[in-house]
DNA sequence: ACCTGAACACCGTTCAAGT
DNA sequence: ACCTGAACACCGTTCAAGT
């Protein structure tokens, strides 16, 4: 007898042995498709054609799986920032840092669930530290003291990794223009200033193709404002 | 027979009827004490001396409970900002906004779990919109166009509510000075720039009483940098 | 060494029944 | 109207057993 089994069924793929790497990649795939709240050990096992208990030979538990997905995302970021060609930080630290951050951002745009999972981790992963080490390297090359670089990390916060807290999230409701108009009417009473802001934005973009906010534009506006403030303090120091 | 039961046991408090308000206050109390991950419907019921199923007469389910805790926190913030006496925004929008934000921050410092729960809500609660309406009101009084006010909300992000993404969270490990030194040694190899930054910070604060970061100082530094950048753009507009 | 089935101790929630 | 007990359909995880 050959060691191969199930030869009668050609649809059965030869079994690839389970590994930590395969488990984590499957976890990222599930989060990409259904969101992180849909990630269960049983579902993850099913995705891999295996029983749930087999996972525990490769990861410590569910929390370790989430830690692992952050690892995968950060690795993707590190690979991306390594390839981008930006000005040397000695010549133009702002352009160098800007390029790094916007490159990292692209990865998070492909994995929109990742910020929430990253923030939910109790402790700072070494991969995040490694990424931030590169940020500090750029600042140092640009003439920052360690102290001012430290300030800079705090000012940037999650923006250093390319994402920002959005307090204003799309409602998802208001599918028709009429609903939107009714919603606006209601808001004008309770929230006159927000309503005025919304009206002004709609005026600038009458088709509303962008929705209320162009996230990329807002992100870059905020980033440039911060980089300018940091450069001002660096020059004064 | 009187309707009162259990008169034999004087420790049994007369039963206060359950209400949405009581349920949500108990939920906040549990989150304050044990963290939001420890909040379960069964535990919440026990805290209220009731069966789990009774809760469903006052809240739709667990997600509604979390929505409700955000409501409670935002109400606390609104009460706090109403009482603070700050410069009129017409005279000094920066001072007025700064005072509002630092007041909101105090509430989050009393409920450190709240940012994560607030961010986990899929949609923007009306209470957050009400708070931001006040922020926009200050900006408008300070001479901002609706458009620039919109930019400002995005730049501030969660900082408008008084909290910021901290990517660098205290490890909790390294309880002894020796452990910390060993940790530093290890970091110097993999993360030379972060390690240098850490060393510089320790040098400035040899007792290490503040830990690595003085959060309040960093928050205000970042806030002031942003307010300055916004004022510059307002003046130029 | 790697995988599994059955079981345990939890969850949120439904439902029919009590008062 | 408000509360409850039993039950259902899930979880993550342990353990002893298989190969």
Automatic annotation (TrEMBL), chains A, B:
Database matches in Pfam families: TetR_C_1, TetR_N
Claim: rRNA-binding is one of the keywords in the record: no
SUPFAM superfamilies linked: Homeodomain-like, Tetracyclin repressor-like, C-terminal domain
The entry's keywords: DNA-binding, Transcription, Transcription regulation
Cited Gene3D superfamilies: Homeodomain-like (1.10.10.60), Tetracycline Repressor, domain 2 (1.10.357.10)
DNA-binding region, residues: 40-59
Annotated HTH tetR-type domain residues: 17-77
Full protein name: AcrR family transcriptional regulator
Source species: Actinomadura algeriensis
């Amino acid at each position: 007898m050959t060691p191969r089994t199930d030869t009668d069924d050609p649809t059965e793929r030869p079994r690839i042995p389970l590994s930590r790497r395969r488990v984590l990649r499957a976890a990222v795939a599930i989060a990409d498709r259904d969101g992180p709240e849909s990630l269960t050990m049983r579902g993850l096992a099913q995705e891999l054609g295996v029983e749930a208990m087999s996972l525990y030979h490769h990861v410590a538990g569910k929390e370790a799986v989430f830690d692992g997905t952050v690892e995968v995302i950060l690795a993707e970021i590190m690979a991306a920032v390594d390839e981008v060609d930006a000005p040397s930080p000695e010549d133009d630290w702002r352009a160098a840092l800007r390029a790094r951050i916007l490159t990292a951002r692209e990865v998070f745009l492909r994995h929109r669930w990742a910020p929430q999972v990253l923030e939910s981790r109790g402790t700072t992963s070494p991969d995040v530290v490694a990424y931030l080490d590169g940020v500090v390297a750029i600042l140092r090359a640009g003439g920052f003291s360690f102290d001012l670089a430290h300030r800079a990390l705090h000012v940037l916060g999650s923006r250093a990794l390319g994402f920002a807290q959005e307090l204003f999230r799309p409602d998802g409701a208001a599918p028709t223009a009429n609903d939107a108009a009714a919603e606006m009417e209601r808001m004008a009473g309770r929230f006159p200033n927000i309503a005025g802001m919304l009206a002004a934005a709609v005026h600038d973009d009458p088709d509303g193709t962008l929705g209320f906010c162009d996230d990329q534009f807002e992100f870059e506006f905020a980033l440039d404002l911060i980089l300018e403030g940091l450069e001002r303090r660096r020059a004064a120091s």
